Fold:
Amino acid sequence: MSLDEIQKWLIGPDGIKESFGDLRLWSAALSFGEDTIRCENLSCSHDWRRLLFAASILAESADREPQEYALMVAEAAVCFSGEPIYQDAGGLILARLSNHRAVQLAQDRELLRPELEHRIGKMEQLLLTRRRLHSEIFLNEKKSILGNRFQTELWAKLASSRWLSATAPTAAGKTYAVLNWLLLQHASGNAKSSVFIAPTRALVSEVERQLNQLKLNHGLNSLKVTSLPINDEGFHSEPFIAVFTQERLHIFLNAGKEPHSFDYAIVDEAQKLSDERRGVILQDSIERVVRANSTCRLVFLSPHSDNPEVLLEEAPDGVATSVVPSNTATVMQNLLVAEQVSGKTKEWTLSLATEEGKRPLGSFSLYDRPTCVRKRIAFVALALGKKTVGTLVYVNTADSAERVAALIYDGLSNDVFEEDQELADLSEFCEKVIHPKFQLVHLVKRGVAFHYGNMPSLLREEIERLFTSGKIRFLVSTSTLIEGVNLACRTIIIRGPKKGLRQDMSPQDFWNLAGRAGRWGADFYGNIVCVDVSKREVWPRGLPKKTAYPIKRETDQVLEQFNDLSEYLSKRVDMETASVNGKLEHVAAYLMSWQYREGSLRDAPPIKKLTKKMAGELEELIKPSLEAIDVSQAIVDANPGISIVALQRLMNFFRNDGRDATLFLPIPPEDSDSVDRFVVIFDIINLCLAPVFAPEKRVLPCALTTWDWMRGRTLGQMIAARLKRERAKPKYQSDEELPYARFIRETMASVEEIARFLAPKYLGAYLSVLRQHFQEKGISKEFPDEFPYDLFLEFGVSTRTLISLIGMGLSRTSSIELSNYIVRSDLGEMEVLNILVGGEWEGLDLPALVKREIRRVTEQKRLENSFDLNAENS
Amino acid sequence: MAKATPVKIGEVDFAKKGDALEYLRVMLNSYALEERVSRDDENFLRDALKNHPDANDKFGDGVDHFFVRRADYGTRCFWVRRLDGTEERFSYKSCV
Structure:
């Protein structure tokens, strides 16, 4: 028998699959901690010698399934065998799987005694050394890391290809490897400027922080890592890595006189090219980067994709490409089903879902009767998470997140909690910066929190940090986790998941979410607990089958609906702005701007997949729209997703309107007429560009939010103002009747969606067209170029000092709190750094969390050594 | 019951005052905010504005065009932009 045949036999029906199955059940039950699951019926005697021998054979396989069996046996032996000899053997198998982080974790938890290599035979010592050498990734002459099999392959292929697409779940460590590789390119002088594109601001700040830490290992202390899309003259003299969302990348590219040429571009969460609106913007931003430098090296990262090769289709001819799929399991994942025992609402069973069906694991009890749906999920979380940390509960809406978190908090009322300074600081921050009635103020004191989009970044990051460190034990979250926050957990509890209220969750999204269970290097096990699976109304299609993401660009999807798109294009010129179709408009805009720029659609990447006849038809349909266009090419390029027809309509509006052109300009936010002017501007945007602030009665609230945001109001002030307005309404007789939680949430949402997304995008387009109008009228000097309104809105500030504080790495919240004590509004980064280093802010009445962030940033700057602090201070 | 009084604005006859007001209300709501009034409707509005008690002030030195914009308290209103670039709103209810 060959090795391959033995491996297949071992996990086949004639092998020892049954013994593996028994071990898996037993170890899954124990993974919840002692006395959590009653599992008396499970066999607890295992033939460890036989299982470990089999696992050592399976560990040699390159396929995922045999590797998973090997990992399961090794981790069970290390964690639960209780025999040092078997624990050592488990440790060796983990090393054989190149899972060095798990070995380290076992040593940290004293499950493995240190110096394993001294207790094994000579031959095994040699093999161990060989494996270590094989998986060693050299960052530089002094530092190396031990990679897993996926990371080692990724590293090798990164060296040999110019375009690369890697796909792997969260726990595979792909971002970590790629960030180190990128820094190595900077350290060795191969790269002068690079860009890392991530889909959310949360990921952007996470990656920026990681890069700032990792660069120190590469001796790149003074390398600029920025997420601020400022592109002025002095910027390009030094090397830098920019970390942007696709929108910020466009802002950055728009700000330069010449297209900026990046040497390296990393696209994280590249499956987002399938997104309806932002997918086209992402595609356009990647194409702009490649147009500016066709030799730019590109790396696409995606979680468990079905067709990662599709991302390489647009690589220029002759460029070496490669795909790196992941076959590596780093953490043992169990898919489990929790069901209530019929007629006994407090008694529940837990089963392991396997390919052969459900296998009973044991039972557990809830602490009280779950009299409503939210209690079912909250009480299951409490029962299963009582002995462990890292329990994440998935719910569909932000409202549910708050309510389920409150139930978990209540369920912990009999536990004793010692006061923890970090949790107390977080509570204080919520009280001072958001609102005293914000629920997190008390929830976090018992180690419970909720997490959804639209939260201020400083708060969200602190919750993530404390959850990862184990101080927050229960976290209730919405679909923000699927949208790209790299947050992993030990146990995830899910009941009938949807995205929001109505949208069903795809099996891919489910598995992307489930992939968060099991933190490589922090846990051995990741448990995915699905609640009430036998209820058809909760899980209409049962447990989702494990499927990979099919990546399909939004442009390709829309072009498949060729007839709809053709009809839309034929009507687009005369279409009223209010009739614009969201889905088709973005692709139509993309195609129109391509044809406008190139004169033909021939070379547009999505069009190459169509027949010549179809491409010709589209060109003919677009031609009439382009005949009367005279907005400049730069404006069209700078505003992806906004159609050229709409931009021209705005241009014509300015030209045909008789008023003094300066009356179209925004007014700086400190002027009391500013908000009225925003109302007029938003009405014009609704009329000409897109009905994004429609209907009419929404314009004033949108303008108020935008104005408040831009003039640097804190979230707390905005929430207080909203509550005051609501309290004045006759329908609320008393304070008690005010739905505080809802108004707080809605204010956060309007800041994110209106002030930080729609307003900068459309105001940016509006101003770029208006600037051309000023040029045509010969009054360019009256255009306020010193006010970059789109940047002010993106960051919610309106002074240079605040932008400088944010540019240093402080959150907006901290920057505004601090700026209340800084007099001047025009300070650059060096000047504000001087103030911070002075340390006088320590005596100010700032929330502790804010002070900690300022300390972290000054410390980082100190490490970067980019600034000789002593010299400046002397 | 009082007999309805017919109203004539320009060339258009209305059986009663309410019909003329309804005609103008529908016209006002058919435009988006900040949108310029069409040539046909503009001719009608010129005739209607002649009935306004402050017609002379509203016309000023000549009307360039009419458009729709917000007025107080979230309402919408017809506005006139004069040849000298100045602008002013007027109530259509005062034109009938």
In short: Residues 525 and 847 of chain A are 37 Å apart (CA to CA). The interface with chain B takes residues 577-578, 653, 656-660, 679-680, 683-684, 686-687, 696-697, 699-700 of chain A (CB under 8 Å).
